[in-house]
Specification:
The complex is a heterodimer. Chain A is α+β, with helices and mostly antiparallel strands. Helices cover 36% and strands 19% of the residues of chain A. Chain A folds into two domains: 34 residues; 154 residues, no CATH class. The chains are: A alpha+beta, B alpha+beta.
């Protein structure tokens, strides 16, 4: 091989390697400063997804044997006995109180509150004006990165108002916080979306 | 000659280094692609989980309403298909109000069995016997003076979960001599399929009737006390029979329904034709 040709090849390759080094350096620099959805301070996407799945599972498990719908129809409390039901029902529980009245409360305290998370629980239901809501557990305004999970529960006419189990939902329909929304010949009373926000 | 060999060595060395850099570059690029894929697909997998929950909610609603309509022997409620479709529509509206998803279901076709309500007369040995059939639902209402025996013969398939069962009040309510939690000296409504007593789920362990089994016979025997009201739903399969006491009303009951579920969100679009068994499922 001619010495000049071989040297030329070597120079060409050295040029390529030089270019590659610079490109690699740029690539490494860019990888070191990856802009991800969590760069702005938000929780990691996979952590958020996991938290949402946990929240969803808590709702599904709590509803497994009807406990969630019992929680929703629990307006026959000390302050709201049978004669004093009213549409302006605004009772909210603290997380400690909620643990005592609902299986969901116990699950949420164990899964989230004990680990330093907060949650708010809302009930949304259709009424004559569209939709209405009341807050079951209020822990303040959730931040923008709160995760949401929801479960829809159907309440029925023959279900008892909790915790006294003395009147059915149908019997208290005129005064109950959640109104009856179905046709008279339908055994269903109303549909309620339970919305859980965790942060 | 010496110069030539040295130059060639230099070329080979530089070539090897170049190849190593190219391989490292490829690894880094693919690593970035995998990372981007993980980020972009996480919401899709979450969407699939949401669709599953939604289908579960629609199915649960259908089962509950159809069952309540089945046990409505006096026709207080309207047609169960209409009731279910109204509830599914309400569900769809509520869902659409809260998120950018639509979830809907419709009922297309039904398979029928039989639902009945009646009473076992006061005095000993009045019996209700269901032969060669699957029993999806059975409840009895007992007063504290009542005593009831439930017998299921060997089912056609699988083990008999609890061949002899007894409900009685003996200072407190007992099922097979085991105290029933959550009830004291009050009348009780017992679900012999799910084990629910007065709304307390799983109050009796190992309930006597399995809704997935076909039994040679299921017999309720009144041992002591006053009238015992009962209600049941059976599949009404070929060759089956009910040896019923005097006071007994029955009507057609929906045993299963064909339903179309649909779910649409930004990430997932899903639709499925499904047969919903109202009773033949683990509860």
């Amino acid at each position: 091989m001619n010495s000049d040709t071989a040297r030329g090849q070597a120079f060409t390759l050295e040029g390529f390697i030089g270019a590659m080094l610079i490109l690699m350096a740029v690539l490494f620099a860019m990888q070191a400063a990856v802009i991800t959805p969590s760069t702005g301070g938000a929780a990691d996407r996979s952590v958020q997804a996991q938290t949402q799945q946990e929240a969803q599972d808590a709702l599904v498990v709590a509803n497994q044997d009807g406990n969630l719908s019992e929680t929703l129809s629990r307006w026959d409390d000390d302050e709201f006995d049978g004669d004093e039901l009213n549409r302006d029902f605004t009772r909210s529980y603290t997380t400690e109180e909620f643990e005592n009245v609902s299986k969901l409360g116990a699950i949420l305290n164990e899964s989230f509150v004990d680990d330093g998370w907060s949650y708010t629980l809302e009930a949304h239901y259709p009424d004559s004006d569209g939709t209405d809501q009341y807050i079951l557990v209020d822990n303040g305004e959730p931040p923008a990165d709160a995760v949401t999970a929801s479960h829809t529960v159907v309440l029925y006419d023959d279900q008892y108002v909790m915790p006294e189990r003395q009147q059915t939902l149908e019997e208290t329909a005129d005064e109950a916080p959640i109104p009856r929304e179905f046709d008279d010949d339908n055994p269903a009373y109303n549909t309620v979306e339970v919305r859980l926000l965790v942060w | 000659m010496v110069t030539d060999t040295s130059d060639r060595g230099q070329v080979i060395l530089i070539g090897a280094v170049a190849l190593a850099f190219i391989i490292v570059g490829i690894v880094i690029v693919f690593n970035g692609v995998l990372y981007a894929e993980t980020i972009s697909s996480s919401s899709t997998s979450q969407g699939a989980a949401d669709a599953k929950v939604s289908e579960n909610e629609l199915e649960r609603t259908t089962i509950d309403i159809v069952h309540k309509s089945n046990m409505d022997i006096d026709n207080e409620y309207g047609n169960s298909d209409d009731s279910v479709n109204e509830a599914l529509e309400a569900y769809q509206t509520l869902k659409a109000n809260s998120s950018a998803t639509t979830a809907s279901g419709t009922i297309t076709e039904n398979e029928y069995g039989e639902a009945a309500v009646g009473t076992l007369e006061s005095g000993a040995d009045d019996e209700l016997r269901i032969e060669d059939d699957t029993v999806g639902h059975m409840t009895v209402s007992l007063d504290t003076t009542d005593e009831l025996e439930i017998n299921t013969s060997e089912p056609a398939l699988g083990p008999d979960p609890n061949p002899e069962a007894k409900l009685e009040h003996n200072g407190g309510w007992e099922y097979n001599d085991t105290p029933i939690e959550g009830v004291d000296d009050e009348p009780i409504d017992v679900d012999l399929v799910s084990g629910t007593v007065n709304g307390h789920p799983n109050a009796i362990e190992d309930p006597p009737i399995d809704p997935t089994e076909e039994y040679d016979n299921v017999t309720l025997t009144h041992i002591d006390g006053g009238e015992i009201p009962y209600g049941f739903v059976r599949q009404d399969s070929a060759g089956s029979d009910v040896d019923d006491p005097t006071d007994h009303d029955s009507a057609n009951a929906v045993w299963s329904v064909d339903a179309d579920w649909a779910y649409d969100s930004a990430d997932v679009s899903f639709s499925r034709d499904n047969t919903v068994e109202i009773y033949e499922r683990e509860r």
